[in-house]
Design brief:
277 residues, alpha/beta, Rossmann fold, 2 domains, 10-stranded mixed β-sheet, globular
Length: 277
């Protein structure tokens, strides 16, 4: 783990500062380098484009030149804005005592750049609000833990995991016990199932997986038709700081037809989500 880094995506989202604060928190907790990444995505769409198809032959070259200049100006603005954000959050991280700090500005898409940095990343931290774009694609691209920050920063003292016995749930527990992001915290595991006997059996399995890594957990069997509501109500009633879960199946068609559990959790959750792929 010594070669890994904590990576924070730096952009203009509402919770970028909170994401940076979590980056500092985890970096210091594990004594790992902190990487602040800003990506400039050159996807400028001009308002000057004539969709009528009535551009005269002589005007075409002029329009293309104008569009090129406009795109260059937009790119310059994005680069300057990104550098300003990196400078601001780099200064904050240094003030908080982070010594091993890297500030990167890259071009292209977040997905491409995060995938390129994946092998050297311990965890990726992303600020999320209702205006965030391509988050699903970013999550699907990575096979590392991802912390989705959707609220202001607060220290993590407790975590909730929903367990259903699936491969994704088992992988989440494996990752959580192999290299725990938050080592010394209270852990709760729930299973939502109207069949109490089956639920208790699954919770016993989960508890044993944690016991093998010398982690104690509290387990609860829940009933209800809406799993997301049950999970979030349990989190609220027990004042738990974060929800950890396996993210997105590989079956995109199923997600399109029936909706993705991960996407619905992102939409409904009011506290950070720790996702495992």
């Amino acid at each position: 783990m010594s070669s890994k880094k904590v990576l924070v995506c730096i952009d203009d989202s509402s919770y970028c500062k909170a994401a940076c604060e979590y980056g500092v928190y985890i970096s210091k907790l594990h004594n790992l380098p902190l990487v602040l990444l800003n990506v400039v995505n050159h996807t400028h769409i001009s308002k000057k484009v004539d969709l009528s198809g009535n551009i005269g032959f002589g005007s075409k070259e002029t329009l293309l030149e104008e569009l090129s200049l406009e795109e260059q100006e937009e790119s310059k603005k994005l680069i300057i804005k990104g550098r300003t954000l990196l400078k601001t959050f780099s200064e904050y991280a240094k003030e908080q005592g982070v010594e091993n700090l890297f500030s990167l500005q890259r071009h292209g898409s977040f997905e491409e750049n995060l995938e390129d940095l994946e092998k050297e990343t311990f965890i990726a931290i992303i600020g999320f609000d209702k205006n965030s774009k391509n988050l699903e694609d970013i999550i699907r691209t990575l096979n590392i833990p991802i912390l989705i920050v959707n609220s202001e920063f607060f220290p993590i003292n407790s975590i909730l995991m929903a367990y259903d016995g699936s491969d994704y749930a088992n992988k989440a527990i494996n990752e959580a016990t192999k290299e725990p992001i938050f080592p010394n915290i209270t852990r709760h595991i729930v299973n939502i199932n109207k069949d109490t006997q089956s639920s208790q059996k699954l919770l016993h399995e989960a508890k044993n997986l944690f016991a093998k890594a010398d982690f104690e957990v509290q387990t609860s069997s829940l009933e209800g038709d809406n799993k997301i509501t049950e999970i979030l109500n349990y989190q609220k009633n027990n004042n738990l700081d974060i929800v950890a879960m396996g993210a997105y199946s590989h079956n995109r068609l199923k997600n399109v037809l029936f909706g993705s559990f991960t996407s619905k959790m992102l939409e409904k959750a009011e506290k950070p989500l720790l996702l495992f792929r």
